[in-house]
Amino acid sequence: MAYKRNIDRLPIIPADAKEHNVTCHYCIVGCGYKAYTWPLKKQGTTDSNWMGQDLSVQQGVDTEAWYAPSMYNVVKQEGQDVHLVIKPDVNCEVNAGLGSVRGARMAENRRSEITGTQQQRLTEPMVWRYGTWQPTSWDDALDLVARVTARVIDKDDEDDLYVSMFDHGGSAGGYENTWGTGKLYFGSMKVRNCRIHNRPAYNSEVHSTRDMGVDELNYAYDDYQNTDTILLVGTNPMECQTNLFLNHMVKGMQNGARVIVVDPRRTVTVDSCEQVAGAENVLHLAIATGSDLALFNTLFTYIADQGWVDADFIANSTFQGDVAVNEDAAHPAALGSFEAARDACKMSLAEGAAVTGLSEAQIVQAAEWIAKPKDDGSRRKCVTGYEKGIIWGNDNYRVIGALVNIGLATGNIGREGGGVCRLGGHQEGYFRPSDAHVGRPAPYIDQLLISGGGKVHHIWANDHYKTTLNAAEFKRVYNRRSNMVKEAMDARAGATREELVDAIVGAINAGGIFSVCVDIIQSQIGQAAHVILPAVESGEMNLTSMNGERRLRLVEKYMDAPGSAQPDCIIAARLANHMERVLREEGRTEYADQFTGYDWETEEDAFMDGYNSAHPEVTYERLRTAGNNGVQEPVTGFENGQLVGTKRLYEDGVFTRHGRDDGKALFCMGSWRGLQAPGKTQQQANHRFLINNGRANLNWQNWFLDQKNDFVMDRFPVPFIQIHPDDMADLGLSAGDMVEVFNDVGATQALVYPEPTARRNETFMIFGAPNGTQGNVINAGTNELMLPNYKQTWANIRKISDATPAAARVSYKSWEVEL
Amino acid sequence: MKCNRLVDVGRRQFLRGGVLGVAGAAAATVMPSGAAQAQSQARAMLDYPSNKLANIADLVVNEPIDIGYPDADSPGILLKLGTSVEGGAGPDGDIVAYSVLCPHKGYAMSYHAADKTLNCPGHFSRFDCEKGGQQIWGHATQNLPQFTLRVDDAGDIYAEGADELIYGRLSNVLEG
Ligand code: SF4
Ligand code: FES
C-alpha cells in the first residue's frame, strides 16, 4: 500500500494571514510561491478566508483555493508557533500557479517541532569530543576552527587549506551566502585549493560558451513560447525543470513549435512532447552515448553547406579572421571565425551517421527543423536548451562549443524565439571576488585529497560522499585521514585547547585532515567531520537568487532558523572575526588585518556589502516590491518605482562574456575525437552495460531533505536502475530486485526497474541517492578542465538480493502516460 | 467498528506526528482553546457518510464504475481488479475505489485497463490502482485518495472514508 498521510482536512488560511514572497528553494526554474503564516489559534472559515471565496463547495480544476497537505506545516516565527502554507503563485510569470512534485513539498520539508518533520536538521554547533559529537556554543566551535586553520596557513601561503563551497542560488546559496564565503576565501584569503558543490574543482561547467562570448543563460523563458523549433540536448526538462517545460515549452508546442530531443534514452520528456505536439512533430535522436559532438559538427557542416545561415549576423556580430584563441592547456579547442570553424569541424552526413548511429535522413531532418528557411523565405527560429547530458558528458568544452556554433551560425542568440542556454540545476546567485588566482585548469581537489593533499578542509554544503566521482576511493581515503585526527583528539581528551590544537596539528602533519562541515543536515561526509556548524535555507533567512532566465527575486524570511542555525554568510563573517582575533593574539597583525570588514549582523548586511556594491540600484526593499516576478538581470536602472531589467541578452548583437573589446562572438573549432576522458574506452570494452545516470522528477539533488520525506522514500526506498526486460531475463532479475553495479573503480547498489523503452545493454541509474552512491562507479577521468564525465560509464550488473521489503511493495509500471 | 478505527487512526497519527495532531485529534494538547471550534466541525477522519456505491454483482473485472464520494461533486471510480491487492475489499480482496481528481491540479483522470492505472490529461501524472493509488510518475505530492470500502453480507459495497485530502476541498466532507 502506498504511503498515505491520512489527513482529510487542513486549517483554512484566514483573510489576515501574513503573505511572503517565496521563490521555490529547489530547481533553477525558480517558480513563484506564496508563504502564508498565521497564529496557531486562528483559522479562516469556509466563508471568511484568504481567497474571499466560498470554500464549502468543491473547487474546480486549477483552482487557487486549494492546497495539498504537503503544502502545510506548523513552524516557529519569531518564537511563536504559526501555521504555514506555501502554495504556488498564480500570478508568477514563471509557473502561473503550477507546483511540482518537489516544490509543492516545501512546507512539509520545513523543520517542525510540532509535526515532527525534518528532525534531521542541525540545530547546534557540534565538536568532536569524547569520541563523538557534542553540542557546543558557536564561539567555542569557531575558536577551534580558527585556531587549527591559523596553524596551517599564513599570509600568501594558504595552499594547505582546502575549501569545498557551493556556488549556487536558491536553497542555502544565493548572493548573500556566496558573497560571505567568497569574501572570506577569495578576499581575505586567496584560497586556490577549492571546489564547487557538485564537481571536484573550482571551474565553470560551461567554459567554452563563455570563451565564445555567450553567457549560458541568455534568453527569456517565453522564447520557448514564440519559436519554431525547440532543440533539447542532454536534458530532461519534464522531470528536471518541470514548470519550464509545462508552462513554457508546452505552450510553445501548442503554438506550433516542433521539438528535437537529443538523448540516448527515451525520457519522459520525449513522451510528453509527443503527447502535446503529436509524434510527427517530435524528433528523438537517440544517439550513441557520448557522440553529441559528432552530431553537432555534422549538423553545423550540413547547415552551412546548405547556406541556411544568417550571413548578416555572422558578418556583424562574430569574429572575422581565422583563429582568435589558440588551443592550449586552458582551451581544449581553438576559437575563431565561422569559416575557421567550418574547416575544423567538417563532418559529412555519412561520418556523422556512422558515429552517432543515426540515419543520414534523421540528421537532415534535424538540420531542416533547426535552420531551413520557411517556404516564404523567412528565418526559422530555434531555441536550444542543454544540460548535464553534455555538461557531464564526453568532451564538455568542444560539445558545448559545437552546439553554440549552430546557434551563432543561424543567428539564434539574442533574438526572440532563440537562445542557446543551459537549463541548470539550482538557481544561480554568484557574487564573489575574482577567482582568477585559482587558475585554469583548476586543481582537481578530490584527487589531491586522495593523494594526501590538504591539512584543513572547510566544507560548505558539499557532500562528496554522495556526489563525487571516484567516490568509493574518495571515501576510503577521507575516512582514514579524518580518523587519524579523531584518534588524536580522543587521545587528548581532558587536554587544554592549546594542547588539543597541538594534537590535531600533529595528526594532520602525519597525513590526517581536519574537517569542518557547514550544512543544514548531518551529511555523509559530515560523518568524518570534527566540527559541524548548522546553517539555514532560504525562507529561514532572506535570500536573493536568479533563475534560468536571470530573474532575480528575494525570498522573504517566513520562519525562524532551526535552533541556533545561522545563514552561511553570517557563519563566514563570524569565522572571519575569529580568524582575526586568533591571528592578533598570535601577533600576526598584518595577516589579521586581512580579516576585517565582517561586521554584518544580518543577511541584508552581507547583501549590501557584496551584491549591492556592484549593483547599487538593487535593494531588498525594491526587490520586495518587485515580488515574485522580480527583475531579469542585468538590472539597468530604477524608474517609476521599479527596477528595470533585461529580458534577453545580446539583442544588440554585441557579445561580451569573453571580455573581448570588439564584442564579437567566436566559433569553436573542436573536431570530433571519440571518447575523450581517460579510462572510458577501456571501461566500455570491458563491461557489458552502459550505466547512464542522472536525476528524476521526484528526488531533489542528493535527496538531502527527501531522505526524511515519507512520500518520497515510500516511492523509491533505494535508488532505481532502469533495465530492459530482456536484459533482466538474461540476468535472472525480477522487478525490485537489488543489484550490484560494479566495475573497475567501485560498486554500488540499486533496485531494478523494468524499462521496455530502454535499449539493450543500456541502463539508467538515478544519481545522488543516500543509499546507493552512483559516483562509486564513475572513474576519475575528467576533461582537460576537470569537468567530470558521469554519463559515459560502463559496468557489470549482478543480483545481490531479492527486493527489500519496502521495495517489494512499490509500483513498477511504465512512467509513460496512457490517455 | 467505528470505534476501532478511531483508535487505529489516532495511534498512527500519534506515531507519525502527523498534521492531524494539530487540526483534530490532539488539539487539546496543542491548543486547548481551539477545542470548542474543532467540535463544531465534523470530526477529522471520522464523520464520513456511509454511501452505498454498488453491489458486487454489478462489477465486471477491470471495468470501473463511476461513483461520487463523499458526495456527488467528488468523482471517483469503483473497480474490481481481478486479483487480490493490499487494501482490497470484498471476498476476493480485489475491490478498490479512488478519487479520480488528480491531486496535482484537479484534472479528471481516465482509467487505462491494460495496466490498471489512472492517467491524467493535465500534465501526465499516473497512478497505480493495484498499489493503493501510488503515483507511478507525476507532479502530485500525494498518492491518490483511496476510499475505504465495506462489503455487507448482501454484497452491497459502501464507501466510508478516505485516506488523503481530495483535490479542490480543504475538508473531504464539505462543511457549510
Ligand atoms: S519546477 Fe523547480 S522551481 Fe518549480 S516548483 Fe518544481 S522544483 Fe521548484
Ligand atoms: S493535473 Fe494531473 S498532472 Fe497536473
Protein model, in words:
The complex is a heterodimer of chains A (819) and B (176). Chain A is built from 26 helices and 30 strands. Chain A is an alpha/beta fold and 819 residues long. In chain A, strands 6-5-18-17-16-7-8 form a seven-stranded mixed β-sheet. In chain A, a hairpin with a 4-residue loop joins strand 19 (543-546) and strand 20 (551-555). Chain B is of the alpha+beta class and 176 residues long. Chain B has helices at 2-16, 20-23, 27-30, 35-40; strands at residues 51-55, 65-68, 75-80, 95-99, 110-112, 117-119, 126-128, 134-137, 147-151, 156-162. The two termini of chain B are 27 Å apart. The chains are: A alpha/beta (819), B alpha+beta (176). Chains A and B meet through strand 3, helix 6 and helix 24 of A and helix 1, helix 2 and strand 8 of B. Bound molecules: iron/sulfur cluster and FE2/S2 (inorganic) cluster. Iron/sulfur cluster is lined by residues 24, 26-27, 29-31, 95, 99-100, 102-103, 242-243 of chain A.
Could you tell me the mean pLDDT of chain A?
97
Give the N-to-C terminal Cα separation of chain B.
27 Å
Instruction: List low-pLDDT spans of chain B.
Output: 1-40
Net shape of chain B: globular
Distance between the termini of chain A: 24 Å
Beta-strand residue fraction of chain A: 15-25%
Task: Describe the strand arrangement of the main beta sheet of chain B, using strand numbers.
Answer: 5-6-7-8
Characterize the overall form of chain A: globular
Helix and strand pattern of chain B: HHHHEEEEEEEEEE
